[in-house]
Amino acid sequence: MENFQSQRQIRQKEIEEIFDGFSELAKKLCFYDWMYINDLYPNDILEIRRLLEIGDRIQIDSFFLHHYETNLNSYKCKLIDLNPIRENIIIEIFEGINSKLYYLAIPAMISQIEGITEEKTGIRFFGTSKGNTKLKKYVDTNNLKYFNKFLAHPVDTIWEYSRNQNHEIPSGLNRHDIVHGSSIDYGSRINCYKYLSLFLFISVNINDLKQNK
To answer: What is the pTM of this model?
Structure first.
């Protein structure tokens, strides 16, 4: 029995180390503005790790562009399944993406990200307070277990999309610059897919962020 318990503890530690590694990968990808990684295959993870090691932003973005475009239709279906009352909006967002109308698709996704998060948590996604995201305190109180730690990274730090505006240097990813009209060149393919990654992150993972495990 003692030997069995020892083996079980070793196995548990190995599992936790695997999830800790995945959590670290997720955090690093947040620096590149990619938030949804739930559906990556083991080979994808190995490739992403390689690209992160050399810090190749162009190749990281290229990897995810291909990944998201390959799965675009399934992502549309997933988002509709998870947000059925928003079906008409989601359909038009994806029509915009397919038609390369990124200037229209991005603000629509921003509004849905805000609305879904407030609906589920009572907090708007992009809200910040005293140098933290408003969702950080909310998530911290839910004591996420090791296997869900990777879910917290898009909300435990103020990333590019939610930081305060720098009016002198408008950003194509900053929510405030886009919504308040400061940015006039945000409508790129890469920015659109990065916001899609955020839209997917919130729709798929928000319930796991708000439940005690």
So the answer is: 0.89
